[in-house]
Amino acid sequence: MSLNMKDLCLISTAIACVVNEESVIRTKKCKKRKWVKTWLRKRNKYTHVKLLKELEPDDYRNYMRMPEEVYMELLDLVSPYIEKNDTVMRQSISPHERLSSTLRWLATGRSLQDLKYSAVISPQALGKIIPETCKAICTVLWKEFAKFPTTKNEWEKIANGFEEKWNFPNCLGPVDDKHISIVRPPNSGSYYYNYKGFFSIVLMAIVNANYEFILVDVGTNGRVSDGGVLENTDFFKKLVDKSLNIPDSKEIGPKKSKLPFVFVGDEAFSLRENFMKPYNVKELDYSKKIFNYRLSRARNVVEIVFGILAARFRLLHTQINMNETTIELAVLAFCILHNYLRRKCGESYTISSSTQENVNNTDGVNCTANFLTNLQRGHNRHANQKAKEVRESFLKYFNEEGKVPWQDDRI
């Protein structure tokens, strides 16, 4: 079959038309998108930073979870770490907007898609701003407001607080763990799936008698038990090899009862010479019930702290939908903020008078709600004879010279 010149011209013209039509279609499909939505470009007009200027003191405190003067002090501290330079294309988001948006996320637990409307910041930008700001909060506040005790004098100061407020001598702090609910990380399988049927990471904490954290460990997957979390920490390793610089045993009371310095926990932990736990309910007699009660008063302080924390930072009421690193930074940030606000705001920071256990209230107040779930109890471990002797010495002290007037009424 042969084609003349006229046929070839017709064919080439048809091909050119088809190519040109496809090019037009592609151009329409690849229409250039805006790099930012129009209303987001008007951030200075709609931002909640302007609202803050109009709020009354009580409303400001409720909105930011702290008084204005405390917030401005915190802003001055973190600004050098979160301030960005303007570019030719756009104006940078100010440290004020970055910090206030992060605190609102911690305080409410709202999704980034929801938060963008009040912050007037895109979810993509918030996804970068929040971890950066949480890290800055940890950096500037850590040494002053979350310093772990390293000297004998620091440990003795904590112990004196528990003896004065909670009638437990030589107590270095209660230890406890809680599940923090998260959205399952991609490709993690059941690694974070806990015995309660949801995905979580574990927050382990030790607190002092003034409701402040002295140690926070976060990030362990939710499958482990209480004892397993503790034993995976650097704190436990130092506790075992006696490198925490804990003071030697101290004589207490008129009879000079010699008692060691100890941490306290619930029945899930193992009994050690420097770590006390309650007696098993199966072996209780009257004197052991007294010991369990006195130990529970000191241990309940950490439960109160978790309750205050969850009331102030309602992110804990949600399934946190962030990557693991951001979640850990957020948890560390609000734990440090808790200490910061306790010292700056004093008693006004606590959620209500019900969190302050009266010296005559022997049952204590458990403020921890069901959104902070206890860990699964691990297997009981056999304690050595020395650990049992230490517990017996505390039992004897609580039932004799260290007896408090109201303890018999509660047993």
UniProtKB/TrEMBL annotation:
<dbReference type="GO" id="GO:0046872">
    <property type="term" value="F:metal ion binding"/>
</dbReference>
<keyword id="KW-0540">Nuclease</keyword>
<dbReference type="InterPro" id="IPR045249">
    <property type="entry name" value="HARBI1-like"/>
</dbReference>
<feature type="domain" description="DDE Tnp4">
    <location>
        <begin position="175"/>
        <end position="339"/>
    </location>
</feature>
<dbReference type="GO" id="GO:0005634">
    <property type="term" value="C:nucleus"/>
</dbReference>
<comment type="similarity">
    <text>Belongs to the HARBI1 family.</text>
</comment>
<keyword id="KW-0479">Metal-binding</keyword>
<dbReference type="GO" id="GO:0016787">
    <property type="term" value="F:hydrolase activity"/>
</dbReference>
<dbReference type="Pfam" id="PF13359">
    <property type="entry name" value="DDE_Tnp_4"/>
</dbReference>
<keyword id="KW-0378">Hydrolase</keyword>
<dbReference type="InterPro" id="IPR027806">
    <property type="entry name" value="HARBI1_dom"/>
</dbReference>
<protein>
    <recommendedName>
        <fullName>DDE Tnp4 domain-containing protein</fullName>
    </recommendedName>
</protein>
<dbReference type="GO" id="GO:0004518">
    <property type="term" value="F:nuclease activity"/>
</dbReference>
<keyword id="KW-0539">Nucleus</keyword>
